[in-house]
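Form 7-S
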Amino acid sequence: YASRADLRTVMSEVPGQKLDKISVSHVGKLAQIVRTFQGERTIQAVGRLDMRERLGLFYKNTSQAICLTGAEEQVAKQTHRSLERELVAVTESSDDLVHGDFNLSNVLFDQPTAKFGLIDFERAFIGFGLLDIAKGAGRILDNDTESVSVFLHAYFGRVPTVEEQKHFLLAQMYEYLGAVSYFALEGYRNGY
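Output:
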């Protein structure tokens, strides 16, 4: 968009409003919207996530951070190794369209129709769809066990298998490692 005014004009054309929180009764609908979005194949110029490269960046950031204790740095390194061993292959074989910034500020809800919509796709990539679900579990559902269970069930359209649950937990580890990487280096340097 050329300006904030253009963005406001576009936003005014999008039905719905941003949410402060989501009720458990709407979690299943939101999961279905995400699943539908991830299956979209008409979007072209979206790159594939290079999981090895991203994990390497996370590792570099945490290694350079002077604010982590030795124990925290060790946990970050172990997490990095586990993700490299377990998640890279799954990500390389996945072809989901991933939103990349799935949080409440990028979800619109239209009260009269009870429909959800997603906005802000500038971080979208081709990769592993459960990365969106892991981010949403933390940033939208506050990792509430009941809501996350409903979310996963609706996302898969059934009770997730043990393997799918494992992949979800790996995606959460990725999300947490990314947050540690960001805040340990950038946050510490910039005082927040």
